Each structure stands twice: as C-alpha cells, then as structure tokens.
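User: Can you help me understand a structure? I only have the sequence.
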Amino acid sequence: MLKGFFPPYTPNGQSSLLSPPPWHYAGQVLSLAYDVDIQVAQSYVPENLGTATGRACGHVCEWQSTTNGWELADPVYAQYKEFFVLVEVETKSGELLNFCPLIWIDQDIAMARGLLQGWPKKMGQIWMTRSYALEHRAAASPRAGTVIGASVASKDRRLVEVKATLDEKEGRPLGLLAHPVVNLAGSPSVVGEPDRGSLRLLRAAVGDVVLGPMTSGTAELRYFDSPHDEIAPLAPRGAVEASLGMVAITINGAVEVKE
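Assistant: Let's start by predicting it. Here is the structure, written out as tokens:
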C-alpha cells in the first residue's frame, strides 16, 4: 500500500510534501490596517459571506513552522515568508470576519498547507526587515523612528512596497490577529469537462495563540498594477496604521462555514 497524507505517495510515505495537522507557527508579523473602497472590497467577497466594512489589512510575515519539532533542526523545511491582504466583512449576525482574496508565499510546503485551507496562495518573492531587540545600528530594534521595509514581487513584477515607521507605542492586534479569517476553497478537476468544482467557505481551527509585545507605527503601503495579480484596486485610501510584533499559533485543521 502506498502511504502519505499528501502527494507524492510512496511505500514509506517519507516523500509526502505534507504531514497532517496540527501545524505550529511562530514568527514576526507586520500588520498594516487601512480604509479601502467599500464597493471594490465587496467585489472580492464571496456571495452570502457578508458585507464589506471598508476596512482591509495587509500582512507581511516571516514564519517558522513545525509539526512535531523535526523541522526546527532542518530549517529549510520550516522557514518562509508571505504577504496577504484581508478584507473585513460583517456577517448578517453582526460578527466581524476577514476574507483573504490574495496571498503570496515563497515556500512549497506552506503553499500546499494554505491551499488545503482555502488560502489562495501563489508563489512570490517576499522580503522584510528583521527587527531585533538590540541596541545596534543594524538591529532595526522596535523603538521610535525605526523603519521596517518590505516588498513583494511575483513573476518578475513588483506588486507591493511597504515602509513602516515605528513610534514605540504599544501596538494593537490588527487583521489576522483581530478577527477570524474565512477562506474560499475550490475543488477543480480536469476529469471529463474541466470544472472548478464546488466552492466551500472554510475557517481554520486555530489554537494555542501567543502574542508577544507589539509596537505601533504608521506606514506607506503601495500596490502596483499587474496583468495577472489584481491587488492594485485594494490600495489604501488614507492613512495606514502599522503594528509589528511576534506571534505564535497552531492550526489544527479547518471547519466548513455554512452560509
């Protein structure tokens, strides 16, 4: 019998790209909250999920992940970076949720995990200033005046530029860290007539959330036009609030959200 949770399936299952959840994550997260054109935001939201509030949040993340700990000793399997946009939605019951229309990732394991949860991940190149709590010119320590930069590109096209300036005040949880995320998962098939299959709304089963100290700031956030990545319409309108901090979470799986 061939073994493995995810392809490739082999006699011992050691080649499988993924192990099943739980998946554990820790890393640096730069959250960028802003107002967005409400009609544009609504056009990215699945029908019947809810009404766009006119708020959105970009996130630049540098993660380290593991299943049972072995990846931490072989970090090429553990470390990756990503950028994603969340659109805030209010449901009919008044609950605030986030929906992710766009996300870029630079590692295949994290991409496959995300697709299983409905995160619409695409490969990209993500760079982010690392902040260390050291008094040194190169440390970009979390204090007033420190500048945190980031950029995102895909297929040789720059999509996102970030320049955040910290103010040393206490930051607050934004976007991903403020409200649950609901994603849209498809089941495309090329058997017979190609079809995207049924679409399901999924919500991650999140546990063991740990938030470290956060530092607030303001940011310049720019999205660029691209022929194949529709991020420019979700550009900020007005000021951008920034919050930088360390985060750890565990993903135990996902649950389907009934409309």
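Now, to help you interpret it: The radius of gyration is 19 Å. The longest strand covers residues 200-223. Let me know which part you'd like to focus on.
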